[in-house]
Amino acid sequence: MEYYNIIYHISIYGVRCDSARRTLTQYSEGNLRRRKGNMSLRRKTNDLMDIGLMQIEDDEGSQLSDQEVLDNIVGLVIASTWAIYYLAKYPHVLAKLRVAEETIRMAIIAAFVFRMATREVEYKGYKIPRNWKVIIWARYFHTNPESFEDPTQTDGI
């Protein structure tokens, strides 16, 4: 029996945790099966399963097995749940995290990114044709006066 299974079964919450883990695994398994069912007909999303776990390859070029994808998803959900719990329990840690978030917002490393328009769009009266290369000024998102009262100052820290 793996270590984490032992922890589930000896903890006072073991039964509920194990049940929740099984439910999450079953849901994720169904979702994975649907996505892999007919890859040519379905619309690809930009979530962790599509652009991450289903595409990862090891040194030999093999993709993760379905079980490895499911284990990673369940592990990430459980870890995220515990992270939220502890951030709520210890607000001073959340405040420190907010400081880090504001620092990253103010000192953005990637000031802009390059993208290609996948379809024709209109933006503020300008038509951007399909396949045009565009530059997105990411710094603008972090200093937009519509999003921040005073975008040149840290937000309340």
Automatic annotation (TrEMBL):
It holds the Pfam family p450. Keywords: Iron, Metal-binding. InterPro entries: Cyt_P450, Cyt_P450_sf. One of its GO terms (biological process) is brassinosteroid homeostasis. GO terms for molecular function: heme binding; iron ion binding; monooxygenase activity; oxidoreductase activity, acting on paired donors, with incorporation or reduction of molecular oxygen. Belongs to the cytochrome P450 family. PANTHER family: CYTOCHROME P450 26, CYTOCHROME P450 FAMILY PROTEIN, EXPRESSED. This is Uncharacterized protein. It comes from Populus alba x Populus x berolinensis.
